[in-house]
Amino acid sequence: MPAIASLECSLCSTSLTPDVPRTVCPVCAGSLYMRYNLSSLAGSNPSETVGKPADQPWGGMWRYHAVLPDITPVTLGEGWTPVLRSRRYPEVLLKEEGANPTGTFKARGLAMAVSMARHYGLKKLAVPSAGNAAGALAAYCAAAGIECHIFMPKDVPLANQVEGAAYGANVTLVDGLISDCARIVNERKQAEGWFDISTLKEPFRVEGKKTMGYELVEQNDWKYPDAVFYPTGGGVGLIGMWKAFEEMEQLGWVSGKRPKMIAVQSAGCAPVARAFDQGADVSQMWQDAATFAAGLRVPKPYGDRIILDIVRKSGGLALALTDEQIFASLRDWASHEGVLLSPEGAAATAAYDHLLATKFLKPSDRVVLFNTGSGNKYTDVLAEAFGLVPTLAAV
């Protein structure tokens, strides 16, 4: 594992030392990226570099130890999730992030954030969340012996509330959106002694999420696909993958045209898609956000400028689908592919159908669709969408 050479602002390129835990850039409040001295790996053979360290028991996303911080991880087996080939579309690959601990891709970022927190000796972590990040933070804090404070909208899926209680976190349900949860964390963190693990307000979660980029390239024989569809709430996964592509190109592990990055949102909360359509550099706060895809209900992503820049540089786009379109795709993939998608993942599959119909993509284009979580985490949400009424078994 390499030492962290510096922390670099994603907006103004200010360089900071990694000797103390950092939040955002002190100059412009931009998100920070971890930078490493990877010169010794340049031109190396990835098949000889990537893999479980011979002297360590952990694998998963930590197979990319050569491009991750030199720390002992707090791991529950996150990463190296399967790629499922569609039964109907020969060039469609589904990256099944529901196979992660706590059932979503959030395990990657929070595994890294908690590992770094333990490395720095932090004792109390706090996060505002649309649901899944809270559950993941609670799990990894429990594994690390770190105090956990999570703030979620009161109408998050029941599974997220159960996770917080089971893992022993301090859970606060808020009458509002994730933006309201973030405001509360920001107001209280200094007095409470919390380190804020909010999306892109610390440099660690993006490092865990970038492993999705390494995996999708390795699982595609070290070649780029033509497009990547990513359900975008906070957008850390999309940002992390773009960082991974940059690093792999520097190392000579992959070459060619990077994939079109497709940021997918719900029509009920689509600040990035609206900004993309308007040609804006940043998004505006989305009023009255409402969608059954809880992870997409982020009215103003902190990394919106970065997301929009990546989408445009890649030749991709940002688009929004209605909840009706998302639910129809969820049912379609369940009944024809045997995969119960999360609502967020179904937004990606619905977007693929739409971009085929509009001829933005061809059936021959190789694409990776991200199912960011297991549909089983949304049992109560899906039961309502299917019109099912829970019944109690007779005594």
Structural class: alpha/beta
Helix fraction, binned, reads 25-40%
Tally the helices: what do you get? 13
Q: Round the mean pLDDT to the nearest integer and report it.
A: 94
Strand content: 15-25%
**Biggest β-sheet: strands ordered side by side in the sheet:** 4-5-13-10-11-12
Number of E-type strands: 13
User: Which runs of at least 5 residues are low in confidence (pLDDT < 50)?
Assistant: none
Order of helices and strands: EEEHEEHEHEHEHEHHEHEHHEHHEH
The whole-angstrom Rg is 20 Å
- Rounded to the nearest angstrom, the distance between the terminal CA atoms is 57 Å
CA-based shape: globular
Mind summarizing the main beta sheet? 6 strands, mixed
Describe the model:
With 395 residues, the protein is an alpha/beta fold. Helix content is 35%, strand content 16%. The protein has 13 helices and 13 strands. The chain has helices at 46-49, 106-120, 132-144, 158-166, 178-192, 205-209, 211-218, 236-251, 271-278, 304-313, 323-337, 343-357, 379-385, and strands at residues 4-9, 15-16, 32-36, 83-85, 92-96, 124-128, 147-153, 170-174, 195-196, 227-231, 260-266, 317-321, 367-371. The strands form 3 sheets. The protein has a 6-stranded mixed sheet with strand order 4-5-13-10-11-12, with helices on both faces. The protein has a 4-stranded parallel sheet with strand order 8-7-6-9, with helices on both faces. A 3-stranded antiparallel sheet has the order 2-1-3, with no helix packed on it. Helix 7 (211-218) crosses helix 8 (236-251). The longest helix has 16 residues, at 236-251. The termini are far apart. 53% of the residues are buried. The model has no long low-confidence stretch (mean pLDDT 94).
